[in-house]
Amino acid sequence: MKAILRQTIIPLAVIASVAPLWPVYGTVWAGIVVLVGVAVGTAIAVVAWVRRWSLLTTALVTLAVFFLLGVPLAIPGKAFFGVLPTPDGLLTLASAIVLSWKQLVTVVTPVASYEALLVPAFVLTLVAAVSGVSLALRPQHRALAAVPPIVSLGLAIWLGPVRGFESIAVAAVVFVLLVLWFAASGPRGARGVLRALGVVAVPLLAALVLVSLFTPAQRSVWRGLVEQPFVLQADTSPLAEYRAYVTGDGANEVILNAAGLTAGSRITLVTLDRYNGVVYSVGGTAADFTRIPGTVPVDSQQGLEVDSRITIGTIRGPWVPLPAELGSIAFTGSGANSLTNNFFYSSLADTGAVMGGLRAGDGYRVTGVAHPLISLNNLSGLTPGTAAVPVPAVVPDGIEAYVTRNSENATAPGDRLRNVFSALLSDGYVSNGGVGETPSRSGHGAERITQLFTQVPMVGDGEQYATAAALLARQVGFPARVVMGLVVPADASAAATSSEAGIALSGASMTAWIEISTTDGWVAVDPNPEIRPIPDRLPDAPTTVSRPQSGAEPPPVDVPRVQGDTPPDSAGGELTPVADPLAGMLVTIAATGATILLLLGLLASPFLTIVAVKARRRARRRTADLALDRVDGAWTEFIDSARDHGIVLSDSSTRREMAKRVPQERSVALAKLADRAQFAPGMPTDAQAEEAWRSVDQVREGLDAPLTKWRRLRARVSFASMRGSVLGRVKDRIQAARRPRG
């Protein structure tokens, strides 16, 4: 019975050690992989012990079993009938031994059984079970059997999520199992196991409580430190290319074909959330592009479910047009695997991108939930949300005045937003600046937006109106961002949009709108005025410039670069900072040091409390209002200091008798001063009170002088002077209970 108990503890510890990976996988199949890995590893170790296999033989058998079971377990999509490994599956499994570890921390969780990302879990459990049980079966190496579960626990935490208290609880469970293992391996049997449980239970419970209270919500793990392979330029702004799409030859180029959409549906090319006064760019909280495991959870609380098929025509940059907040995406065609491996998604921006860009003919199927489009009349019922959006670095002149002028009669944020947007749609006229149109400058820098609000009539296009609307919404109190994308024409027939070929959308369908954060989530708002005749231009309204305006034109149209591309010689703009491994190591060291300091602080807290109580007691005595009370406090402080230094004083003795027991020069003088203050006619002076406290300080210094630093510290944290307190009374009762009776 004891042997069976002993041999089951190590496999249980291995199973528990990989529990931190559960939030990463989030699927029952991962649990099956772990159980099979531990069971098979345990079986290999037992057979190797019975048959007396060498280390080399055991390793070769483990490797063979790994390749036999690895594909159906860790890469089930590449197994014949879900059981037999395919040649392609074996090649993927072999490469995954090295590559899947980093891939696991660069994909949005939960990854489920995506590609070969279950391989790390299978490798961890199989190797830990084989090595742990093998060591446990050999008495000369039995103590080392605790190492594999500890190593697998550390790797599982390092590969796990950034947030969570679960890893601490898992570590406690593994710790308890290993204590039981050592207890069961000893000569005391079941009694030793019970004793070990009793010894571990109390400090473990206390540690869990302390850690749950003081451990930060985020920890330093590989997922938070690894450098993401997809990094945009800090000033990437496809909005600067707006005119290239909607005018000239670009207006007739087919950007994509969309099927499964309805007239008026919107397809997001990119979401822009940071404004620096020159361009709106993808560089704020939305610049968190990571790989996704095929499907991602949808956060939208409202909106229309979308199931669309898109085929790419001509498109600039790495952007992947998406008709909804992404639920799933599946690439089709001969390049599907490459596109899947190079697809990245920002869940904060609902924007997708492919490293290397899309090419004509690439296709994919998208499901998700489209953000609802809110009409002007329904803006009144909106309440600002709490989404994190960077504050604009520059607010163009004219924005604040426009909000004040058009919302002065409204108080609720929704009413103010409706009034401001109503004015914008009423005052604005649309011109893309093309041939035969009213002149209209491109760009959306602060100087151009200021001109938009000062020019009469107000003339601009989607580039300027979307930028202006987002800045106006921010002034009203709504977090807002600019979206550039395409709109399915209102006259598109249902047959055309739902057919397999879909409907062709050209550059003329390109537009820009905004999304604002509300308590119900993100909603879309179209700030573009209706196309109507533009009246003759009037002289510009005078404008008082309240701050310097940037006269810089938007940067030249450029295809956004990603890390790994070779930038042109003339390219400007600095790259978004990426995680530095050295900095990550320093952060880890700092976090470890902070944890150690925290634990040391917790251990020292009882003693620090005593020191603090004594300091407060001394301050209260020394700052008493009456000089008599300060002298009496000095004498009491003298007695407490003597007792803390181990001198026994009787409460029935006189002050002079007590003073003679303290071998210091000022002891007797302090006793005489205290007697005079107590019994002589009149009240002591402030000078006498100060003299009494100087005597106390001199006595204390004299008592400390011959002592070592350790004994001085003991005197500072001694309970002897606190016998009248609650702690002192508790100590007295404990000492009384220990004295022999009779």
From TrEMBL:
Region: Disordered, residue numbers: 530-575
Keywords, comma-separated and alphabetical: Membrane, Transmembrane, Transmembrane helix
InterPro entries in UniProt: Papain-like_cys_pep_sf, Transglutaminase-like
Record's protein name: Transglutaminase-like domain-containing protein
Residue ranges of every copy of the Transglutaminase-like domain listed in the record: 407-527
Native species: Alpinimonas psychrophila
Domain of life, per lineage: Bacteria
Residues that span the membrane, as ranges: 5-22, 28-50, 55-75, 117-137, 144-161, 167-184, 196-215, 585-613
